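As described in the Methods, two query proteins were run sequentially through the folding procedure within a single session, without resetting any intermediate state between them. The first query and its resulting structure tokens are shown here.
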Amino acid sequence: MATTHSWHDRTHRLTDEMSRDLHDLATIRRVAPARQAFVMLWAGFTLLPIVVGLDKFAEILTNWDGYLASWVNDIVPGTASDMMMAVGVVEILAGVLVFLAPRYGAYVVALWLAGIIVNLVSTGDYYDIAVRDFGLMIGALALGRLAASFRTPLESDEGRRPLASR
């Protein structure tokens, strides 16, 4: 029962805080720019890994198998398609982790993007996508740093000191 109330309280805090901070464009100017950046990165690094992870199964955006380096395909069991579906599951979980705990999830996503960059560069192709993913990795690291200062309504206040004492 306590778990239900805790989740209920957190989701209401999320709704209240998001509606207070970002309910329309007229009031967005009152939200501190760093908080705005945190919320944008938090939303982006929550949604994008989930969407891309789901697309590993649907293949609407692209045929993901072609992005897998041959050496990776040689060392993993199964086919490239099997591997990309496993990658999709990891990406979905990473997006959920960013949603629930961005101060940890952001670094998981950054590490995942580093692995993707190594894979892409080692194909001998896709340097442009590797550079883009490097930019995304920097964004994930920025989210991790911002998450040290800002909490989401889903995170507890336990273990957090006021910013002035840091």
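Immediately afterward, the second query was submitted; its sequence and tokens are:
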Amino acid sequence: MDGQPAPGPVLSAAPPRTPALLAGLGLGGFIDGILLHQVLQWHHLLTDTGDHPADTVAGLEANTLADGFFHLATWVLVVAAMVLTVRAWQQGRLAPPWRAHWGMLLIGWGVFNLVEGLIDHQLLGIHHVRDDLGAPLAWDLAFLALGAALIAAGSALLRSGERLAARHRGSGAPVAAR
């Protein structure tokens, strides 16, 4: 109350990575759930269990419920990413360069594909990318390959963005717009 402005947060040199990673996981799940489950209708969460076929009303109801819980989980990841982003902002941690941010988003999406593809498609066998085909293994392998490619591309973008940030950190030039 002495007329002096309150000190602002101390700026950190390291932008947060976790928010973009969580957003990538959640958005990757949304892409899977919305595109593959709903738009293309290639599979639902439980279509290959044998107990919940998508060609019966009861099976479709069970799959729709499971898909809903899946979408809820991906939504929670996106909300957690938003909360962490705002908290980092309140702590004075600046946003990463766009390249680094997009890199972490792609890494998150790729991790989603690898984890979901290995666990649900291969280990548990509860569904495959194309449950409507007789031999879905090639589609499952392509889904895993896409996950690996997303991680590789995301890692390259992340490294490029971090190198850019390191070059400009001392110069005072804004790097978030790059």
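The longest helix spans residues 57-90. We note this only descriptively and draw no conclusion about the first query from it.
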